[in-house]
Amino acid sequence: MKVVVVESPGKVKSINKYLGSDYRVLASYGHVRDLPSKDGSVQPDDDFAMTWEIEAKGAKRINDIADAMKGADTLILATDPDREGEAISWHVLEALNKKKAIKGAKVERVVFNAITKSAVTEAMKHPRDIDMELVDAYLARRALDYLVGFTLSPVLWRKLPGSRSAGRVQSVSLRLVVDRELEIERFKTQEYWSVEADVTAGSDPFLARLVKHDGKRLTKFDLNNEVSATAARAAVERATFKVAAVEKKPGQRSPAPPFTTSTLQQEASRKLGFSAQRTMQAAQKLYEGIDIGGETVGLITYMRTDGVQVAPEALDDARQVIAGRYGANYVPEKPRIYKTKAKNAQEAHEAIRPTSLARNPGSLRLEPDLGRLYELIWKRMLASQMEAARIERTTVDLDSADGKTGLRATGQVVLFDGYLAVYEEGRDDADDEDGGRLPVIREGADAKVLAARADQHFTEPPPRYSEASLVKKMEELGIGRPSTYASILTVLRDREYVRMDKNRFIPEDKGRLVTAFLEEFFHRYVEYDFTADLEEKLDLVSAGELDWKALLREFWTAFHAAVGEIGELRVSNVLDALNISLGPHIFPDKGDGTDPRACPTCGIGQLSLKTGRYGAFIGCSRYPECRHTRPIAQPDGDEAAAESADRELGVDPDTGNAIWLKNGRFGPYVEESGGEKPKRASLPKGWPPASVDLEKALRLLKLPREVGAHPEDGGMILAGIGRYGPYVQHNGAYANLDSADEVFDVGLNRAVTVLAEKRAGGNRPGRGAAAAALKELGAHPGDGQPVRVLAGRYGPYIKHGATNANVPRGSDPQDLTLDQAVLLLAEREAKGGGKKPARGRAAAKAKPSAAAAKKPAAKKPAAKKPAAKKKAAPKKKAAAK
Length: 881
Prior knowledge:
The chain is of the alpha+beta class. The protein contains 26 helices and 32 strands. Strands 7-8-14-13-10-15 form a 6-stranded antiparallel β-barrel. Strands 2-1-5-6 form a 4-stranded parallel sheet, with helices on both faces. The protein has a 4-stranded antiparallel sheet with strand order 21-22-23-24, covered by helices on one side. α8 packs antiparallel against α12.
């Protein structure tokens, strides 16, 4: 018996079928070991010793493999064909060796680039040892990421509260987004004009643009106002023209190579609107296989690659399909051979392509995302092996009789479409310099202007990064690697360092602060060249040309010293430096000569960055005498700025304290001044700040209010506005009200009714009724029971039998695959024994924050008492016996 270990449970059934009864295929479900998320997991003082931990889910997988090895003579490690896959095989082997589960069995490593019978059976004929050079590169990368994250992030938390984390590649990617935003903000718009004319020269009309005026060749900004543009248009209208020259230049356009990971993500973003994460989820499913005629078949080759080369049999396959569908004239004389740009040949696997081009997209019944992505991959591979497109570029020059005015028309004609019959690569810009098609125009012919136009234009700043353009830029700079792009972009969104607007990245203030801090105090480590150089050194480790611990020693020596220096700085020193570097953004020039940092409330203090429990904000230097605060971002426009400014509403007649309307980190709120801790209340939804007066503010500040005694037990019913909206509350039970306004006038009868409805399960949406199904994922590979995504009170979740698992924050439930769901359910079972996951407030209590987890146990005496009672109970039972 031979035991085969793969990563994903989705591959198990099909691979076992390919190999037969002499093999038993098991899944590791990804990594079985990881570095614990705590200090000391990597120890620089002990030559970078690394402590690996097997969590409950990993322990179960290792136990399953160890049990299967009893009586087996061979262990075949068949994890994915990349550095991460090599590392997973190494982890599995290390864990099995610790359990002494190998016992003389042969250990082999095999890789296959596609989940097909031929690919899998052929791979089994060519086993090898684990590539320790790839493992070393993995270890170096994990150690670097850990050391940067666990050393730099605490510095951020101490010096810049509210910051979430820093990362070796993550922070550099964030800098790209922030630098582009700064470039946009610094951009100065310039006005320019163009003059175009509809012309005929014994032909159909065509479009020509003015290129010469008053005997001078025009540059972009020569016509920079309406007066000069109008004069130029008049010159075109009164001139008589002849066709001075017609120049035709033959050319050709060659197809792009098959997809790599980054180019697939870019094209899927441009053409399908997919995020990088959505693209990789669909590609993973296409790679692992789809049921075709009762057999699971992988439709594409491995999707994490930076290689563009293709297997010879795939080239032959492509040429046959092209000849059959389009004709022999679309097949080039020789196959097109593309060379990878990867710096490390060991990592340059085959390009992403269909496992069989005979399976055209129209013949398969696939889920929408899978079908669209497969069609993209299929067309790109086919086009990459087709003849070039032959085109003819035409330029027509027209001169006026006096030679002072000149027009030019450009166009192109496709003589032979070649690969364009199948596919054309997308572009991030819409510039079309070649123009459209031109009619047949004879040199020397008289030309007549039918109409002329002068159009105003303004230069535009560079566009914000889309996922496609950001991935492309990261690849150009050598930042990160194909397998990391999707996760990096996801982390930036999850940390709320960026937001997406019209599929473009916009840095949040939190992201700008982190970037400014790192550039100011850790500049070397967010330099593009430094990060790219580190990636190249990791590639040298993969190639066996550099010792991985020597790389770590070189990095750690300088990095640790830099962290030590910053640790000595006071928070005030950090904020002073950020006030200067971020000044143009957080204290913009008002344009009236006044000091942009002057406090608008007291007129004496200076505005400055401040840090609080929930992050950074702008406050007055005269605190606590002046309590002026505002968010970091300044609203655009005078009206918005006035609306966001602090406003005194009046005085509370009972206390004599001033009541203020303010705008804070979480939106507008009202505040009663006086005392060390002013009383505050957020404005409920639907209450615009402009509509809030003293009366409304006082009503908010007096919440929760007493409604009356409950007729059953005499307990007081309260009405208020909380995290989940307006409510009534009685003895710890809450029930929702329809609107915030109802809080102030709800009567006793109404309050008793909604509380009774709540107890009956009918108050909140979703209570007392089955949750709505968002997506059917299929049968669980373990027991065949259905796995579904449901809509819950606190968001979407996965359900399998009695087990529920939350859909990860920020993930689209429609993008979730069965394999991902199985992994999440397995994690949930390992942590909670199959019980339903805690949600809402219970979940918050069950899962403390990282900051809370670091507090000494002595600070939580209340948590120890229940534990003591639990221990005492068994003793009493024993004594009774």
